[in-house]
Design brief:
single chain; 165 residues; alpha+beta; Alpha-D-Glucose-1,6-Bisphosphate, Chain A, domain 4; eight-stranded antiparallel sheet; 5 helices; 8 strands; globular
């Protein structure tokens, strides 16, 4: 399992994941850059993601939905605020209305850092919430378990890429 740790810090309003993968930093970076690869892991296994738009540039926006086991759709959005390839990505993240546009409310601030290690790549995702109430709401929806499951799919995406070369 690639997830080394997840940490909930209610004082700082953060949820942090640290994961390691057998792949170069450049290869793991592609998992974020390419929407077809992103779809293979962004949603938890029982809620796969579909990216309708993925403008992976500073200021670019993404729109996606995750489809649940009964066919229900949970929509979300990103706005990429910083790209420092291949070391760091920062984005605002939130829920969307049925039309795919951002729903009212404070976004979650996401920061992803990539670090080369002897066995491949370690990346850390820190999600910072705007209020204790929103933090507890999203945790109550299963964000920690969902993200752990989503990250658990990355090894398979990387293995498929190695086999196709």
């Amino acid at each position: 399992m690639p997830v080394l740790s997840s940490e909930i810090d209610r004082d700082a309003l953060t949820l942090t994941f640290v994961a390691e993968f057998d792949g170069s930093v450049e290869r793991v970076w592609q998992l974020w850059e390419d929407p077809r690869q992103l779809e293979r892991w962004w949603g938890p296994p029982t809620w796969p993601a579909t990216f309708e738009r993925h403008d992976f540039t500073e200021g670019g926006e993404s729109r996606y939905y995750m489809t649940g086991p009964e066919g229900e759709k949970a929509r979300g959005w990103w706005k990429t605020t910083l790209i420092d390839e291949p070391r760091r990505i920062e984005f605002d993240d939130g829920f969307s209305n049925d039309d795919g546009e951002p729903a009212p409310g404070d976004p979650i601030k996401g920061v992803v850092t990539f670090e080369e290690i002897s066995s491949g790549t370690r990346f850390t995702i820190v999600s910072t919430f705007g209020s204790p109430e929103y933090f507890e709401e999203v945790l109550g929806m299963g964000m920690e378990e969902g993200m752990r499951g989503a990250l658990g799919q990355i090894d398979g995406v990387l293995a498929d890429a190695r086999q196709s070369h």
